[in-house]
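Journal club prep — side note

Before the paper discussion, L.F. wants everyone to see what a predicted structure for a comparable chain looks like in token form. Sequence:
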Amino acid sequence: MGLVPAFNTLPSPGGPLVYSLEAHQFAVYGLEVVSAGQHLLTVSNKFIVFDLSSGDIVRIIDPRIEGIMTYLSVGPDQRYCVTTTISNQYIICNLLTGEFILRDYQTPGNANKTQVKSALGQQQPLDPLLGAAVSNTHFALWTSKMYQVYTNKDELLTCQPTRYHIIQIEVLPGPEIEIVCRSEEVRDDQEVPRDRFTIDYYFITNPDHSNNTIDNNEQRCLTGGHKNFHSALVLTRDKRRMYTCCEINDNNVEVYVNRPHPINYSTERIWAFDHQLFENKDR
């Protein structure tokens, strides 16, 4: 095991330098260890895959974009990844074959209004992409208050607005999304005592099926339930436990467990308080 920092030359933080992994012309804005820990996928204006045992370059994929890629998300089976770019494009890349799809991001009603001029005269996206999330079959893209979900063949399934700023999205099997948003309007230059958030779960509507059934007409059950929290959030990989701060007047870390809804137990689940992990006196 080793640490891999996100810098242009990717030096090892502390200890002896093993490999510099210097190949990108610009700074690296996304990286992921793939192939069972054997390779390192990095993105800048190109995809470059390094062999972590030798430091050699395994593959270079050049999507020939203007600018650089700013976000990287790799599917759990590591067959493909999705990246976003500074030019408000997104790239779906097959990591096995090197094939890729490059698309301009469009939001409903903004097909002809995708860019505005900055004070320096540069063209900037009107609603810039902020992130991407990938499952084995679907992926999601989001801006500040809008998210879109696609199949891995680039078929748009849904486009949904949110009331407040989106922080993070995870695409779960089903398909289903786990979305973390702010629970209040906060300006970029505004200081608040605590950052307040919500976590929610939604099924991705398939046009050929109802929202809460699968092919054999069995009801689907959401992975988790709505929860308000502040400051921090940690979820176990299996979505069975949540560690967070929920009380408004303190920073105590509490543990919540994932349980069936007491009434709608076949279709919904809730985050139920289990115990306080420790008392945090910091304010």
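L.F.'s comment for the group: DSSP finds no helices and 21 strands in the chain. Keep this in mind when we get to the figures.
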